[in-house]
Amino acid sequence: MKLLKLVPDNTNIDFMRWRNVALVLSIALTVASLAFTAWRGLNLGVDFVGGQMIRTTFPQPIDVEQLRTRVDQLQLGEASIQEFGGPKTFQIRLPKPAGGDAAANVAATRVKQLITTGYPGAHVDSVDTVSGKVSEELASNSALAIALAMLGIAVYIWFRFEWQFGVGALVTLSHDVAMTLGFFAFTRLQVDLNVVAAFLTIVGYSLNDTVVIYDRIREDLRKYRKMAILPLLNLSLNETLARTVVTSLTVLIALGVLMLIGPEVIFGLAIAIFLGVLIGTYSSIYISAPMLVWLGMEPDSFLRSADERDAPDPQAA
Length: 317
Prior knowledge:
The chain is of the alpha+beta class. It has 12 helices and 6 strands. The strands form 2 sheets. A 4-stranded antiparallel beta sheet has the order 3-4-2-5. Helix 6 crosses helix 11 and helix 10 runs parallel beside helix 11. The longest helix is centred in the middle third of the chain and has 31 residues, at 193-223. The chain is elongated and about 80 Å long. Residues 305-317 have low confidence and may be disordered.
């Protein structure tokens, strides 16, 4: 039985031919994403702005829009209602009310009364309140976690390979995160702790793809020392293309299923990782590899000079 190959063995795509076009496109989209995010901001969830999360279970499936209308009539602020684990359980998120804990308790009581009187047999499972101080700590710690993850990855690759590889990895990760931020700012999808976990997943996935390509480039630099840098990068990218396509495709299929039929509560997580995989696959080819050219790397960049080769080995003395 002949095995199915998504990428033929003799594939020879000239990726580097479009590196400058990809550079202009990536810079334009990254700047636009950051500018739009700074101008419009993100739709932060209760985790980051404070508020209340009320989890309730109904005896039978209900009309979500009808429930949202009834909650909005309480004039407690814009409510976010999501299915939680099944068609009968929902999570109601309300913004933080003015007036401290007393106002929060009043708001929760009014929602409870609405649920129990408007939907016989329904009951409230839990009421969680996130204060402003806690939400600020969550926001700052989440941003710090993403920044430290990116910095640590860049430092590791710097020591594992060379400084050009570390800079290339950091620029690639920054590109991926910026593009995903712009997507959430444009679509107004809610950003909560699940989305932060997705960002960390994007950083890890993009790194994984980049390291595989960088490792093959380093091997080819040692093997083909007289080959020009652009053909060498094309060779390395084509050699790892099958692995890149298969890995990305399988992940995208799984995420696509979660987006289509998965619970609404993880939709933000699924779409963030889906988008991150697409962007990460593109950037690992058209950002991480061309960065080595833009940083002045040549096939003989890491070869020792004649003086260094002739110098006595201090360990042999």
